[in-house]
TrEMBL record:
InterPro entries: AA-permease/SLC12A_dom, Amino_acid_permease_CS. It comes from Acinetobacter gerneri DSM 14967 = CIP 107464 = MTCC 9824. It is a multi-pass membrane protein. GO terms for biological process: amino acid transport; transmembrane transport. Pfam families: AA_permease (PF00324). It is found in: Membrane. This is Amino acid permease/ SLC12A domain-containing protein. One of its GO terms (cellular component) is membrane.
C-alpha cells in the first residue's frame, strides 16, 4: 500500500519504493485494454474465422473466446487489486506458483508482445506501401518504430492519452460498422445485390456448421489472439490512480465491450457476406485491404471505403504496437526491479518511464525492416504464431495464481470479506479458465503452419526455467 505522502509512487513486489507514477485513470485503463485487443484479430482475422468455422461456428468461437477471456480477467481482478504492481503476472506467479514460473511468465509475456511489434509494423508498412507503391516497407517500419517510441518514452500520461485516442478511432469504427451493418440487414439502407432486406438467412444458408464442428476448435487460437491485450489492465494497475476502485471497473467494462464488438461484428459480416467469401484471399499484402470491413462498407456504398479502412487498420496496428511496447517494457522493468536483470533495465527518466527497457523491447519490431529480403508474409505468420502462443501460458498462470492465492488466503485465517475484489464462482472460474487455455495451446501443435512457432516457444519456456535456476545461484547485481 502506498503511503499518503507518496501518492505518485508505487512499490515493487519486494516492497522497494519505485518511481513509476500512478497517472492512469479508469478511461485510460479501459481504452488501453481495448486498444491491445482490437487489431488484426478483429479487422483482418475475423473473416478467416468465418470462412473456416462458418457463420454460426464463428459466433460460437468468439463467444467461447470471450468467456475464456472473461474468466481469466476475473481471476486477474482479484490478484491485481490486492497487489497492484507493474510486472503483475510474473509477480503473481512467483508468489503463488513458484519463482521459476514467475520468471518464465514474465519472459513469455515480454516475448509475446515483442513479437507482436514485428507483426503490427510489418502489416502497417504493407498498407502504407499500397498508398505509396514506390516506397520501401523498411522505410515505413522505421517511421512507425520512431512514432511508437516517442509515445512510450515521453511520459506515462502522454502514452495513456495517445493510446486513448488511437483506441477511440478503432472503437468508433467498430460501432459505426455494427450500426450500419444492422441497418443494412433490416433494409433501412441499401445493400449491393439485395432488393429487400438481407436479414439473417446467410447465417444458416449452408447449414449450421458447413465445415463440421472441428473448425470451431481449430480457430480458437486465432480467436484467443484477438482477445489478447485485455490483460494489459493488470500491467497498468501499477500506474493507475486508485487501483482498488478503477481496476475492477475497467476489467468488467473492457471485456463486455469486447464481447459486444466482436460478436456483433461477426454477426454483421456473416449476415451480409457469403461465409466462403468472408476470409482474406491472395497474398498477405493484398489481403490486408480485402478485410471484410472493406467489403461490407463498399456494398453499403460508403465512398472511399478502402482508404478509410486502410487508415483505421493502420491506426489499429499502431495502437496495438503502442500498448504492446508499454506492457512488455514494464515486464522487463519488473524483472530488473527484482534483480533478475541488470539494474540498468529499471533505469527511469525524469518522467518515470523505463527508457532502456523500452528501447530493448523495440528489438521485436526490427524484423519488419527485413520484410523485403525474407518476405513479409513469412515474417508475419511466424511472429503471429509466437505472439498467439506466448499469451497462453500467461493466461494459464493468472488462473492458477488466483486459485492458489485464494487457498492460501483462507488457509492463513483471512476471510473473503477482507478481499477488496474477489473472483466469483470459485473454484469453477479459475479451473475452467486454466483448462480451456491449456486446450487452446495444445491445439497449436495440430496446425502445420504454426508448428514451428509452437516448438520454438516450448524451447524458449524451457530455456527460461534453466536460466532462472542458474540465476538463482548467481544473482545479477
Amino acid at each position: 500500500m502506498q503511503s499518503p505522502d507518496q501518492p505518485n509512487q508505487q512499490r515493487s513486489a519486494e516492497g522497494n519504493s519505485i518511481a513509476l507514477k500512478r497517472s492512469m485513470t479508469k478511461r485510460h485503463l479501459i481504452m488501453l485494454s481495448l486498444g491491445g485487443a482490437i487489431g488484426t484479430g478483429l479487422f483482418l482475422s475475423s473473416g478467416e474465422v468465418i470462412a473456416q468455422a462458418g457463420p454460426i461456428g464463428a459466433v460460437i468461437s468468439y463467444i467461447i473466446g470471450g468467456l475464456i477471456a472473461y474468466m481469466v480477467m476475473l481471476c486477474l481482478g482479484e490478484l491485481a487489486v490486492n497487489l497492484p504492481v507493474s510486472g503483475s503476472f510474473g509477480a503473481f506467479a512467483a508468489e503463488n506458483i513458484g519463482p521459476g514460473t514467475g520468471y518464465m511468465v514474465s519472459w513469455m509475456y515480454w516475448l509475446g508482445w515483442s513479437a507482436t511489434l514485428g507483426t503490427e509494423f510489418t502489416a502497417a508498412a504493407l498498407l502504407m506501401q499500397e498508398w505509396f507503391p514506390t516506397t520501401s516497407i523498411w522505410l515505413w517500419t522505421l517511421v512507425f518504430i520512431v512514432a511508437v517510441l516517442i509515445s512510450n518514452l515521453t511520459s506515462t500520461r502522454f502514452f495513456a492519452e495517445s493510446e486513448f485516442w488511437l483506441s477511440f478511432v478503432k472503437v468508433a469504427t467498430v460501432l459505426v460498422f455494427i450500426l450500419l451493418g444492422l441497418a443494412a440487414i433490416f433494409g433501412l439502407i441499401p445493400f449491393q445485390g439485395h432488393e429487400t432486406a438481407p436479414l439473417f438467412h446467410n447465417l444458416t444458408a449452408h447449414g449450421w456448421f458447413p465445415n463440421g464442428l472441428f473448425p470451431i476448435f481449430a480457430t480458437m487460437l486465432i480467436v484467443n489472439f484477438a482477445f489478447n491485450g485485455t490483460e494489459m489492465i493488470g500491467i497498468a494497475a501499477g500506474e493507475a490512480e486508485n487501483p482498488e476502485k478503477n481496476v475492477p471497473k475497467a476489467l468488467n467494462a473492457a471485456i463486455w465491450r469486447l464481447m459486444i464488438f466482436f460478436v456483433g461484428t461477426i454477426i454483421v459480416i456473416s449476415a451480409l457476406l457469403p461465409f466462403e467469401n468472408a476470409g482474406l484471399s491472395g497474398n498477405h499484402a493484398q489481403g490486408l485491404s480485402s478485410s471484410p470491413f472493406v467489403t461490407v462498407f463498399n456494398f453499403i456504398g460508403i465512398p472511399y471505403a478502402e482508404d478509410i479502412m486502410r487508415f483505421v487498420i493502420i491506426t489499429a496496428l499502431l495502437s496495438t504496437a503502442n500498448s504492446g511496447l508499454y506492457g512488455a517494457s514494464r515486464m522487463m522493468w519488473a524483472l530488473s526491479a527484482k534483480k533478475q536483470l541488470p539494474k540498468i533495465f529499471s533505469k527511469l527518466t525524469k518522467s518515470g518511464t523505463p527508457v532502456i527497457a523500452i528501447l530493448v523491447t523495440m528489438i521485436g519490431g526490427l524484423p519488419g525492416l527485413l520484410s523485403e529480403q525474407f518476405g513479409a508474409d513469412l515474417i508475419f505468420k511466424n511472429l503471429m504464431g509466437v505472439a498467439a502462443f506466448t499469451m497462453i501460458p500467461v493466461w494459464m498462470s493468472i488462473c492458477l495464481s488466483q486459485y492458489n492465492f485464494r487457498k492460501k488466503w483462507l488457509r492463513e485465517g483471512h476471510t473473503l470479506a477482507e478481499l477488496k475484489f474477489k473472483t466469483p464462482w470459485f473454484p469453477l472460474v479459475p479451473i475452467l479458465g486454466f483448462v480451456t487455455c491449456t486446450v487452446t495451446g495444445i491445439s497449436m501443435a495440430f496446425q502445420p503452419d504454426l508448428l514451428s512457432s509452437f516448438i520454438g516457444c516450448l524451447i524458449f519456456m524451457a530455456f527460461c526455467y534453466v536460466s532462472y535456476y542458474w540465476l538463482y545461484h548467481k544473482k545479477i547485481d
